[in-house]
Amino acid sequence: MSYATNLLSRGEEVVFESRQHWFAIIAATWAFIIIAIFALAVLIWATTSATTTMLSVLQIVSLVVLIGCLLRIALVIWGWRNQEFLVTTRRIIKCEGVFNKNMGDSSLEKVNDAHLSQSFFGRIFGYGTLDILTAAEEPGGVEDFPMLADPVKFKIAMLNQKEQLERPDLAPPRRYQQRDGQPELRRAEPMPPRAGSDRVSEVRAATPAAVQAGPPPEAPAPVSSSDQLAATLERLAGLRDKGLITDEEYEAKKRDILERM
Question: CA 45 to CA 49: how far, in whole Å?
Answer without folding.
Answer: 6
